[in-house]
């Protein structure tokens, strides 16, 4: 049976980890659909790619089912069978005590990080199940927070723990259809979301310390490795982190 097709959807592709992964995939010969809410940011990602790289800019709000369905339909029409979803779009809140977190902010994080991840995974699963050749791979972007929380991060932490359940269920349900699912848990990649690491972030003991970061390109190389495996093999969970960040021993 034919192996995985080198066609990928990357959500949250307009910045940070999503941009780095999209560029790494494109550089390795993948056709990449760039999905995200900000069209100009997606176009900037496309401009950063090697000339001639097969990219499609597809503005998408992953919290809207109709837009997610339209995204995957556009990918099928443009590139053909889908090989990979990097389920990456996410958001968080500033550090807010639990009792002060507005419900609307909680809902915003849950809608993007969990509901959006589910909708994209569902659409990718449906596509991979019914296409020929059947199968493909889903890689969910978890977080170090899928294992342990930071202080005052209940919405982000709860959703990232939920991503682990999503990954496990997709892995199990995908077995009959040659659909593999893995998760990458990232710690302190240098992106817009982690800029405050350099100036100091609250620790479990209440102190504020600057933390080391790593290049987002190192994350992208890890995703590329996971994506490049044959469907008979799967990296179920990978943790990629700045070597000296206070994760081992956190708290």
Could you characterize the architecture of this molecule?
InterPro entries: KR_dom (IPR057326), NAD(P)-bd_dom_sf (IPR036291), Sc_DH/Rdtase_CS (IPR020904), SDR_fam (IPR002347). Residues 6-187 form the Ketoreductase domain. Belongs to the short-chain dehydrogenases/reductases (SDR) family. Keywords: Oxidoreductase. This is SDR family NAD(P)-dependent oxidoreductase. By secondary structure, this protein is α/β, with parallel strands linked by helices. The chain has one domain: Rossmann fold (3-Layer(aba) Sandwich), CATH 3.40.50. 39% of the residues lie in helices and 18% in strands. The protein is built from six helices and nine strands. The protein has helices at residues 16-27, 39-48, 65-79, 103-130, 154-174, 216-228; strands at residues 7-11, 31-36, 55-59, 84-87, 136-141, 179-187, 201-202, 208-209, 237-241. The strands form two sheets. The protein has a seven-stranded parallel beta sheet with strand order 3-2-1-4-5-6-9, with helices on both faces. Helix 4 runs parallel beside helix 5 (154-174). The longest helix is centred in the middle third of the chain and has 28 residues, at 103-130. It is globular.
> What is the helix tally?
6
Number of domain modules: 1
User: For the record, what is the CATH homologous superfamily label?
Assistant: NAD(P)-binding Rossmann-like Domain
Task: Give the biggest beta sheet.
Answer: 7 strands, parallel
Radius of gyration: 18 Å
Question: Kindly, what is the distance between the CA atoms of the first and last residues, rounded to a whole number of angstroms?
Answer: 49 Å
CATH topology: Rossmann fold
Look at the structure and give the CATH class: Alpha Beta
Structural class: alpha/beta
Strand content: 15-25%
Instruction: Describe the global form.
Output: globular
């Amino acid at each position: 049976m034919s192996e995985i097709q080198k066609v990928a959807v990357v959500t949250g592709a307009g910045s940070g980890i999503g941009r780095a992964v999209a560029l790494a995939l494109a550089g390795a010969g993948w056709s990449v659909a760039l999905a995200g809410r900000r069209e100009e940011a997606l176009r900037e990602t496309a401009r950063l790619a090697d000339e001639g790289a097969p990219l499609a800019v597809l503005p998408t709000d992953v919290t809207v089912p109709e837009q997610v369905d339209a995204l995957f339909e556009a990918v099928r029409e443009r590139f053909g069978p889908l090989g990979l979803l990097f389920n990456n779009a996410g958001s968080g809140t500033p550090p807010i005590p639990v009792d002060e977190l507005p419900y609307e902010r909680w809902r915003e994080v849950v809608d993007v990080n969990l509901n959006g991840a589910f909708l994209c995974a569902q659409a990718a699963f449906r596509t991979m199940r019914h296409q020929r050749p059947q199968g493909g791979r889903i890689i969910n972007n978890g977080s170090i927070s899928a294992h342990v929380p930071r202080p005052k991060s209940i919405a982000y932490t709860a959703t990232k723990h939920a991503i682990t359940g999503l990954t496990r269920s997709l892995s199990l349900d995908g077995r009959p259809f040659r659909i593999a699912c893995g998760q990458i848990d990232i710690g302190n990649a240098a992106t817009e979301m982690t800029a405050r690491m350099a100036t100091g972030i609250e620790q479990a003991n209440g102190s504020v310390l600057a933390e080391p970061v790593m290049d987002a390109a190192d994350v992208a190389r890890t995703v590329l490795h996971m994506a490049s495996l044959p469907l008979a093999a799967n990296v179920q969970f990978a943790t990629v982190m700045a070597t000296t960040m206070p994760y081992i021993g956190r708290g």
